[in-house]
């Protein structure tokens, strides 16, 4: 696809029309592959913190060498939002050859899709292939996207849901059941964790809500919620007994699930088995034994956004879609 010398604006509705979980998983896995091959640039995120509002604002830059496309995502996390999403994002794509900004898009839903897709890629490489039971700790937007994505790579037949918000639990249960999959609400995180093949945590907590004593052999965990310093969903002892994989070590040690155990010297860099790029490229092996407990610590990489945004831009520029674009610069 040629990057045109005009800037296309894609609003949230257009982006939503162009998103498909299957295609996002493919784009994200391809980005992880390039990352594993050393064909990306991913500088550290930069943050503004608004402690008085319990929120932050982040910039995320990424470059994909094979596609020759770069981008910057600006994204917030405000867990106390009531009338707005807790995450709002904008993505700008540029042509590395000239620096021209050829696409600006609403990346709010893109962000939730690409995070779900990352969980699916990790699940594909780390969970048992016959996994069928999914546990969801947290029942917000990302829990739904994790379910959608994981169901693309594993044959899920039973879902257990826990959230302190009863209304959200019920809403997610009803959505899953409408997909023809059995789902049940539970009022205890332990019940969700035990007897589960794949566990996904998507909460903003700063005190662990998953106990080491609940963890059974063979479990795979996608730890999604911890995305800033001090956040922690899993007891540190769980990480000690598990095989840990990160998307990228530096951001994970500062703000991912490993950040608190790492800062307390409960685990070290030697306890990290590998990153998602190494898994996808085969440089490191994931699950070695059926009884292994595996953890994917997801903090989010800018190349996930760039790859997904590039896919959306290319779809928008297909002849049958071009009349729906809005060009804002020429």
TrEMBL record:
One GO biological process term = alanine metabolic process
Q: GO terms for molecular function, please?
A: alanine dehydrogenase activity; NAD binding
Q: Name one GO cellular component term.
A: cytoplasm
Q: Catalytic site residues?
A: 73 (proton donor/acceptor)
Q: What class of enzyme is it?
A: oxidoreductase
EC number(s) given by UniProt = 1.4.1.1
From the UniProt record, list the reaction(s) this protein catalyses.
Answer: L-alanine + NAD(+) + H2O = pyruvate + NH4(+) + NADH + H(+)
PANTHER family from the xrefs?
KETIMINE REDUCTASE MU-CRYSTALLIN
Query: Know the name of this protein?
Result: Alanine dehydrogenase
Q: What's the source species for this entry?
A: Methanohalarchaeum thermophilum
What lineage does the source organism belong to?
A: Archaea, Methanobacteriati, Methanobacteriota, Methanonatronarchaeia, Methanonatronarchaeales
């Amino acid at each position: 696809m040629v990057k045109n010398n005009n800037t296309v604006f894609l609003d949230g509705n257009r982006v939503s029309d162009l998103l498909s979980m299957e295609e996002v998983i493919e784009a994200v896995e391809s980005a992880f592959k390039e990352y594993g091959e050393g064909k990306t640039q991913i500088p550290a995120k930069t943050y503004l913190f608004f402690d008085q509002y319990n929120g932050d604002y982040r910039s995320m830059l990424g470059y994909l060498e094979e596609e020759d496309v770069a981008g910057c995502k600006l994204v917030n996390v405000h867990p106390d939002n009531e009338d707005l999403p807790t995450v709002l994002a904008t993505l700008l794509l540029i042509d590395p050859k000239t620096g021209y900004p050829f696409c600006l898009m609403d990346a709010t839903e893109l962000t939730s899709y690409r995070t779900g897709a990352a969980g699916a890629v990790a699940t594909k490489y780390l969970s048992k292939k016959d996994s069928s039971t999914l546990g969801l700790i947290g029942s917000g937007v990302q829990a739904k996207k994790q379910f959608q994505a994981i169901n693309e790579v594993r044959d899920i037949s039973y879902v257990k849901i826990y959230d302190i918000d009863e209304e959200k639990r019920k809403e997610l249960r009803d959505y899953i059941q409408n997909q023809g999959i059995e789902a049940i609400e539970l009022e205890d995180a332990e019940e969700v964790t035990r007897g589960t093949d794949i566990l996904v945590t998507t909460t903003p907590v700063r005190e662990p809500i998953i106990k080491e004593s609940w963890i059974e052999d063979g479990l795979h965990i996608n730890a999604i919620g911890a995305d800033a310093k001090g956040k922690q969903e899993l007891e540190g002892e769980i990480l000690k007994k598990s095989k840990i994989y990160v998307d990228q070590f530096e951001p994970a040690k500062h703000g991912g699930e490993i950040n608190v155990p790492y800062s307390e010297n409960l685990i070290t860099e030697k306890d990290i088995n590998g990153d998602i790029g190494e898994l996808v490229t085969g440089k490191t092996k994931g699950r070695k034994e059926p009884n292994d407990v595996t953890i994917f610590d997801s903090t989010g990489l800018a190349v996930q956004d760039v790859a997904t945004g590039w896919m959306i831009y290319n779809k928008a520029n297909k002849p049958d879609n071009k009349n729906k674009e809005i060009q804002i610069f020429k």
